Amino acid sequence: MTESPSAPELSVVVITRDDETSLRRLVASLGAAGQVTDASYEIIVVDDGSTPSVRADLAELTGGVPLLLLRRGGAGNRSAARAEGAERARGRVLAFVDSDQEAPAHWVAEHLRWQRAFPSAVVAGHRRHRDEPGSSHWRPEVRTRVTAEFSQNYARIAGAWYLPFGCNLSVPTALYHELGGHSDIFVGWGYEDHDFGYRAWAAGTRTVHNPFAWTWDQHHVVRTDGDRVAEWEANRARFLAAHPDPHAQAVRLIDNYPSGEGSSPGQMWMDSFRQFDAALRLLDDIPDPAPPTRTLTVLSPVDAAHARTLLYEDVPLRIVDGLPGSDLDLEVQREDLTHIEYHALLS
Questions:
Q1: Fewer Cβ within 10 Å of end Cβ, the chain: N or C?
Q2: Percent of the chain with pLDDT over 70
Q3: What does the record give as EC number (predicted)?
Q4: Structural domain total, the chain
């Protein structure tokens, strides 16, 4: 992609299918009235075969932020839809988000803050699930199980490449295309994001986690019906066939649809992710993350300055960061500080 002089700094690519109510909510949240940022950005919506098609007046919701609406036919292909949106993007950075999300006011600024700090990285954001749109009640998503145990610092997770989900991630546009973008071999739901994360890791690209770049996820339902499981299994088979490397084959250990009487499916998934991470450590002779010998609670600028004096002393630390704007979230991942366990107290 050739960047024009008037190109925006960020292109937000949204894929949608048969959910215009949620899409319009998301687009409004991404508009000028919804985001607090001085950066220039555009929105690209890819209607992946909706019936009826997304209405053409969608751009009226953005408050002047440029919006391009692309229409695809057929039964839908999430991976190909993301790739098509990326092809039309003009921004230096790509951010991907799904139409059932809603962007808080800091979302654009947070992805750009991290892209400026890590100009050659895949930046992952997580989600907060709302059972009802606009509700103050929410629940954490499944990746929170991983970061609660390992750290919000992805450098401590050997299997971090599995964790960037296409519903909320950003990557430099040029790097996205160098990596081959999203593969169109995947049909229906599942594995297109793991495939992109794996190919990024195999090419030497870092995967980092911005704990502040979260989105609201509306009416999230974990489907376990036969059709959904079959889609996932078929796409996992495509992934395994495309990547014979032992690191990729280790995804066989992850149980996406665990079951067991009297057991927590979420915790059983976490048990399988732990086995996956351990297998990757064994392959590359990576030691287990060192348990912290000290916990630092950061509540003031003085606390943050003190934490920085200890970051590079090779002493395993747990940092609990309650200071908005401390930038410790960036610092602990800037130099692959695997001995630093980091947890932000998020508002």
A1: C
A2: 98
A3: 2.4.-.-
A4: 3
